[in-house]
Amino acid sequence: MADQHHLELPDARLFYRTNGSGQPLIFIHGNFNDHHIWEEQVDFFGSYAQDVQVIRYDLRGYGGSSTPVSSFSHVHDLKCLIEHLHLDAAVLIGSSMGGGIALDFALAYPEYVRALVLVAPSVTNQRYPWKMLWKGISNFYQLRFRGSRSAIEAFIQDDYWSYFFPSPHRRAAREKVLRNVRNPDNFCRFPPRLAHPPRISSMQRLNEIQVPTLIVAADGDHPFNLKTADDLSKLIPQASGAMFHDCGHLPFIEQPDKFNQTLLAFIQPMLSGKRQKSL
């Protein structure tokens, strides 16, 4: 069973869970989600509890973490968590916005990062397509004027966001994502402007990433997200790619077995000792 805790910061409270010991794997969720989204990965890596330490946390403004009331940095929050846990260099696994946070963190604090796994990642300060930007802004207006329940259902029913949700033929995966999205604690709790971005866009510094990096994309994702993944694969020096077929923005939920095996194969060279040979 996972140990669950809160990290108390001067201006926030971060919820986190840990399992196992060994090479730290830090899973960072994206928008409209929280740490529960990684349950299939926790279950899988539970078999390797002597080799890896699985760490999940709720970003500030999501799940069991506190709501921001002033400017803050996701990168600084992650640094505080790593230092609090006295971790060696970690493998950061980030989904969507979480991938962008992992990328920003690796550029700010490379000594804390052993490898990156970026799943359908965004990049902070990216120029988003106008429609994607407007649709994101409209979620906040819907919340303000219609309340959380109506705003969340409008988001779910909007065909524009269909790439975010597993298709109905993957019923369990779809229900899991819907549960996460329907949690009001994961939906537009604070204005995005409070999340302080890096001074220089990470897209301009990709050549500085000097750790093994796995870029995971899915063919059913939004075209803009696919282009972002392709750009990162080309511009990060030690990048490799994995394409998932017949799924959308969250392949680790839609195809967890394939994702877990892909992740295990990627981190296996980083695991030391005799146990590595038996994985």
How would you characterize this protein structure?
Helix content is 37%, strand content 19%. α2 crosses α3 and α4 packs antiparallel against α5. The protein has a single domain, classed as Rossmann fold. It has 10 helices and 8 strands. The radius of gyration is 18 Å and the shape is globular. The longest helix is centred in the middle third of the chain and has 17 residues. It starts with a strand and ends with a helix.
Determine the strand fraction and express it as a percent band. 15-25%
How much helix, percentage-wise, in residues? 25-40%
Which CATH class is shown? Alpha Beta
| Tally of individual domains | 1
Radius of gyration: 18 Å
* CATH architecture annotation name: 3-Layer(aba) Sandwich
The average pLDDT score comes to 94
Major β-sheet strand ordering: 1-2-4-3-5-6-7-8
pLDDT under 50 segments (min length 5)?
A: 273-279
Summing up helix and strand content along with how strands pair, one would put the structural category as alpha/beta
Largest pleated sheet? 8 strands, mixed
* CATH superfamily grouping: Alpha/Beta hydrolase fold, catalytic domain
CATH topology: Rossmann fold
Instruction: Give the N-terminus to C-terminus distance in angstroms.
Output: 22 Å
Order of helices and strands: EEEHEHEHEHHHEHEHHH
Number of helices: 10
Q: What shape does the CA trace take? A: globular
Count all strands and give the number. 8
